[in-house]
Structure formats: structure tokens, C-alpha cells
Amino acid sequence: MTIDTIELKQPDLSHRRGRRSQSSWLLSDFVTGQENAFAAFVCRQSESIAQCGNPLLLVGPTGCGKTALAMTIACHELMLAGDEDDPASMLYLAAADFARNYANAVSADDLEHFRNHIASADLLLIDDIHTIVDKVPAQEELAARIEARVRAAAPTIVTCRRLPSELRGIRPLLASRMLPGLTVPLALPSGDARREIVWRLCQQAELEIDVDWVDVLCRSLPEDFSAPRLAAVVNHLRLLSEHGDALDAPAIRSAIDAVCGGSEPTIASIAKAVARRFKLKTSELKSSTRRQQVVRARSLAMYLGRQLTESSFQQIGEYFGGRDHSTVLHACRKTEALLVSNSQLSQTADEVSEQLRSAS
């Protein structure tokens, strides 16, 4: 079994400024396999972020443990930067809160106080940069604050769902300030790490389950399962056990279906997400217009509808203005071919898919 563990830590509240991001983690350790070996290696570095790579950027999908590792690394950084008599200060801000605070400072004509607040923190942690893709002024301000902190050798940690350069809507200026430091990619747990996490979650829930059934459970799970979803499956099994049900293959299938049941988006939610990305109305995707932008968006929505749901070509066509199954099939095939050659369309498809999965 090729796994590693990193003890997760939370900065002392008395030494921290800003809103608390999370009260506790699912497990006391971050369990990693080969997929996150580099992240474990970075967590064990004795150097300060200022020397190792500033800013430190953690990149990975929702539920992979970005915030937990960011906080753990922050604990080590605070120990290096301060002592018992003069503890170092940390400012944690969700990116959306940074944007909101910046807008309030602009409205109150109090930018100097806002900027001093950012600059005075010994350690700055900005979480979920991807949530401000539509807030250009805030992005430009954040880019300037990061640049100022890097010049001052002030440690800064940022997290993002994807590489900033791959996120549509992230300003090049902000991306260029985030990437020159140290970028640590994170992936969802797989293989041995997934099995270890499931086993620990079962022990934590005091769920008595045979080791062989744990193996069956892990083999039955979808590939893109985050740790919180693993915990949800284990919790469902715990409830079934307390109800008196046997923990066997049907119970495992029931638990997985219960957690996955709400994860499939609807055709309507897909159409809405695609329309918003193309700055169109959903009604335009359903209309008979042949404007190129609408046709491209409609075809992408049809393709994603086929990929992300169990809907038939006929059902998809009915939603999009009563089109027949051959029209939907043609649109899906054409879009599939375009995704290979059109990087922007491929990126849009990935981002919309990820958005829909996160919202489920």
C-alpha cells in the first residue's frame, strides 16, 4: 500500500484574523497516494514560503483538500514567522470576501485602510480564487496586493479549482502574479488512498464492516469521488446498519446511489449554465435561430446533456425546441470533433461540467 499521511492542523484562533474557514476536517490526517505525493512533499518542507515559492498556489477540484492543506502549511509558516511572545498574524479571506471587502472600501473611499490591513498580515491566505472570475476590479486589486507582498517577502497562500491561466474570466495580470511562485496540483483520492480514507471514515463512524466489503465499496465508487462524498456514503451505510440492514452488496449500491442520486444535473440546468457562459438566454437555445453563437452554445448544451445525464437524444431534442434525435446526434458528433481542435470550447465544456458537478 503506497500511502502517506500529513497531520492536518488549524492555526490558533487567537493568532488569526479573518473569518474562520472551516471548524474541523473529515479526518485528522490528509491521506495521500501517488496522486498527491508532491503535495505531501511540499507540506514537509522546513523552508518558509518566501524561500520555497511565493505565492504558494494549491490547485485542485472541489473536495480534494486544498483548504485543509493550506491551513496546515499556514500553521508551519506561522511557527517560522513568530514566537510565543510575539505570535505571527494570519489573515484568511475567501476570494469572494476579498472582492466584497474591496468593493466596500471603494464605496467608503477607504482603500488605504483596506490595503494596509492586507499588507500588515504576516501571512495571507486567499481561498477559492475561481469564485471571482466575474469581478475584474477585485482581480486587479488582488494582483496588486500579491505583487506587493511578494516584493516584501511576505508569505501568501492562494487556492484555486484550476490553474488561473486555464480559467476563463481570470485576468492575465492576476494569473501572472499567482503562477511564478510554487504551484502544487492536487487530485481527488484514488487507489490505496481512497481505500484508506474509507476505512478510516468507517472506524471514525464506529461502523463495523468487513474488510472485503470495504474493497467492494471502493471498487464500486465513481472515479471522481471527493472525500466529503466518501464520508456521505459511509454515513449512509452507518444509518442502514443502525436500521438493522446487512452491510452487503445491495446496501453498498443503495448508499452509493443515494449519494450519487442528486449529482446528475438536469437538461434545464445544463442549458442554463451554458447559456450564461455564452451570455445568452436559455430561450435562445430553444429557439429556431441559426446565429452561429447560439448554434455553438446549443450544440454544446446538447453534447453535455448526453454526457452528464441519462437522457436520450429524443429527450434532449424535445427540451431544445422539439428537435428530433438525428439533429441532436449530429450536434453531439460535431461538438465532440470541435472539442479536439478548439481549446477554448474544450475549456468551456470542462468548466461548465465542473460547475454543474459542484452544484449538485
TrEMBL record:
One GO molecular-function entry: ATP binding
Record bears the keyword ATP-binding: yes
Keywords, ordered alphabetically: ATP-binding, Cytoplasm, DNA replication, DNA-binding, Lipid-binding, Nucleotide-binding
GO CC annotation: plasma membrane
AAA+ ATPase domain boundaries: 52-189
KW Cytoplasm (keyword) present: yes
Ranges for domain Chromosomal replication initiator DnaA C-terminal: 266-335
Record InterPro entries: AAA+_ATPase (IPR003593), Chromosome_initiator_DnaA-like (IPR020591), DnaA_C (IPR013159), DnaA_dom (IPR013317), P-loop_NTPase (IPR027417), Trp_repressor/repl_initiator (IPR010921)
One Pfam family, short name: Bac_DnaA
Gene3D superfamilies: 1.10.1750.10, P-loop containing nucleotide triphosphate hydrolases
Function: Plays an essential role in the initiation and regulation of chromosomal replication. ATP-DnaA binds to the origin of replication (oriC) to initiate formation of the DNA replication initiation complex once per cell cycle. Binds the DnaA box (a 9 base pair repeat at the origin) and separates the double-stranded (ds)DNA. Forms a right-handed helical filament on oriC DNA; dsDNA binds to the exterior of the filament while single-stranded (ss)DNA is stabiized in the filament's interior.
Family note: Belongs to the DnaA family.
The name this protein goes by in its record: Chromosomal replication initiator protein DnaA
Name of the gene this protein is made from: dnaA_1
